[in-house]
Amino acid sequence: MSASRVGRLFKLGRLAGGVAATALNQGARQLARGQMPVAAELLLNPENARRFTLQLSEMRGAVMKVGQLLSMEAGDLLPRELTDILAGLRDSAHTMPDFQLQQVLNGAWGSDWPCRFESFDLKPFAAASIGQVHKAVDLQGRRLAVKIQYPGVSASIDSDVDNVAGLLKLFRLLPPGFDIQPLLEVARQQLHDEADYCLEACHLRRYRGQLAQDPVFRMPEVIDDLSSEKVLAMTLIEGEGIESLASAPAAVRDQMAARIIDLALKEFLHWGMVQSDPNFANFLFDARDNTIGLVDFGALRINRSDRAQSFARLLTSALNGDLEDIVDAACEVGYVEASDSFNVRVAIADLVQTAAEPAVHAGRYDFGYSSLSQRLGEKLWYLRNQEAFQRVPPADVIFLHRKLAGVYLLCARINARVDVRACVLEALALKATADRALT
Q1: What are the sequence ranges of the domains in the chain?
Q2: Which of 119, 147, 300, 121 is nearest to 235 (CA)?
Q3: 215: region left, alpha or beta (phi > 0 left; psi from -120 to 50 alpha)
Q4: Which of 138, 277, 296, 396 is catalytic?
Q5: Please, are residues 14 and 46 in contact by the beta-carbon 8 Å criterion?
Q6: Model pTM?
Q7: Helices marked H in 323-394
Q8: CA–CA separation, 51 vs 73, rounded Å?
């Protein structure tokens, strides 16, 4: 085992030891006061919460990404305190020190790399679990965003995923009987994909080709001679955070939200490729021309060709409100298995109908005043705490959840009102036309 991997294992071991020591000290103080300590409260007290968040954000890579995925995909299974800790990792990461950055760039471009730029900002303007992003201007005067991978991240993925699983089991932070392994395998594969910047460049080009004639969405262009497996150079997409739309006129908010919903429907029903990261930072709004910039395609997922048909059938059955058809479609997608009881099937059908509420609603759906996210969360919490529902759905369904949740939250954040039903019917009609053309 390499020294770096030993070091990361040591950090997790030190984290576990520190958490346990803090819990024991607090438990002893409670016993001295005549109080009966609760294990979960001891492990996830404020001091340990700070310890978890700080240590995992310092380690970046797979440790941080698994935390992010767990907070979104198993958040209704985990203790609330742990979910809050993991959710805090979504927007926190420690950046590379300057000497390490120089080493990475020397390895990618040679020691004379500054001669290839008019300017290069050594301070990153964005940092996440896999890498950090710098602004630069090349010799042609193009403004660039240069994504640089943290050293050792790709080599540590497998061991980090295993170590995080061990940490969760050590502290018994998952419900008895819940098999987290499928979710960890999804995280493992996504991390390997995200760590391959050549793959991301291919995904970016493919997605960009679908939007070549679209007047609303802007996308970066890959700069091939500056890009490699660990460094990805692109034209810089500028704009304000998508949340700035909240102060735009209502007509603009609604139009932009409708286009984002249209885009998500095209991903699942037409293109078979889904930008699955729900982070708002991946959308940039330009109020000068009412356009939206799309960035970060490391989390792009390519679905099997037959999945679009399954998703279309599930959506159509939800629109029609046919419970039996919903159950059949949910079984085809992977929500339900043939051996599941009648109660499980009915509960899943109810969940699908709830999630499809904006599409079923006649006229414009007011996301800003909707309690949909809360109601979905409550239903999921109840279901996942029943033994029959403690299984992880197929990978593409997990990413459907992420995308759907991200779109709902975004529309709610900007107080949008959208005729979602019209968007869905149009997308289904276009799919039907395309399918007929192929037969």
Answers
A1: 239-439
A2: 147
A3: alpha
A4: 277
A5: no
A6: 0.82
A7: 323-333, 342-355, 357-360, 372-384
A8: 23
Q: Is 277 assigned a catalytic role?
A: yes
Angle 420-438/250-266 helices, nearest 10 degrees? 30
Three-state secondary structure call for residue 76: coil
Q: CA distances (Å), 69 to each of 63, 187, 188, 194, in order?
A: 10, 7, 11, 14
**Phi and psi dihedrals of 303, rounded to 5?**
-90, 155
Please report, in tens digits, the pLDDT of each residue of the chain (439 residues total): 443 444 444 344 444 444 444 433 443 343 344 443 334 443 444 454 455 555 554 555 555 566 555 555 554 445 555 555 555 554 445 678 899 999 999 999 999 999 999 999 999 998 877 889 999 999 999 999 999 998 888 887 887 777 777 766 666 666 666 677 777 788 788 888 989 999 999 999 999 999 999 999 999 999 999 999 899 999 999 999 999 999 999 999 999 999 999 999 999 999 999 998 878 889 999 999 999 999 999 889 898 888 999 999 999 999 998 888 999 998 898 888 878 888 888 888 888 999 999 999 999 999 999 998 888 877 776 776 666 566 667 777 878 888 888 899 899 999 999 999 999 999 999 999 988 888 7
Looking at residue 390, its amino acid is: Q
CA–CA distances in Å: residue 92 to residues 61, 124, 228, 419: 12, 13, 25, 35
Instruction: Give the number of residues written for the chain.
Output: 439
Give the contacts of 201 (CB within 8 A, at least 6 positions apart): 222, 224, 227, 232
